[in-house]
């Protein structure tokens, strides 16, 4: 979509600007918010997020976690179905810079190799996302009632 890129750039710039004003933790990183958290150590559950690309993975029990790897310029699990209260973590394993940008405005910011981004989904619904730098990299988190 030709008009989407400038709007997305403005949104990402705004998020980065706001995160620069957020209180920092001891390691200088922005303090986690209620909905999102970026941490290199997040998402140790490596069995989660299984399934074929394009097919939703099985829902995780309430309060559980799922992991989606970013590898070979793709979200390893494009579409995932989870119960409300589930935390989904994206682990960036590519050498290229990637993002996880949601249609509702939530964004991971730039993720370098080895970094991860987590978001807890409390409300049922569909949450489409894409990589800012590689718009063909898309996925959807479908949240069921919990």
Automatic annotation (TrEMBL):
Residues 60-143 form the EfeO-type cupredoxin-like domain. Residues 102-113 have a biased composition (Acidic residues). Keywords: Signal. Gene3D superfamilies: Cupredoxins - blue copper proteins. Residues 1-24 form the signal peptide. Residues 22-67, 92-122 are annotated as: Disordered. Residues 25-41 have a biased composition (Low complexity). PANTHER family: BLL1555 PROTEIN (PTHR36507). This is Cupredoxin domain-containing protein.
């Amino acid at each position: 979509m030709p008009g989407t890129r400038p709007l997305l750039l403005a949104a990402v710039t705004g998020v980065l600007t706001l995160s620069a004003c957020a209180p920092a933790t001891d390691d200088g990183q922005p303090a986690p918010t209620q909905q999102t958290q970026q941490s290199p150590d997040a998402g140790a559950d490596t069995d989660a997020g299984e399934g074929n690309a394009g097919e939703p993975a099985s829902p995780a029990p309430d309060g559980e976690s799922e992991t989606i790897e970013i590898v070979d310029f793709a979200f390893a699990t494009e579409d995932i179905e989870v119960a409300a209260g589930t935390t989904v973590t994206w682990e960036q394993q590519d050498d290229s810079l990637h993002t996880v940008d949601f249609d509702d405005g939530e964004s991971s910011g730039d993720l370098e190799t080895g970094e991860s981004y987590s978001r807890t989904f409390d409300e049922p619904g569909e949450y489409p996302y894409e990589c800012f730098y590689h718009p063909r990299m898309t996925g959807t988190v479908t949240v069921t009632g919990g």
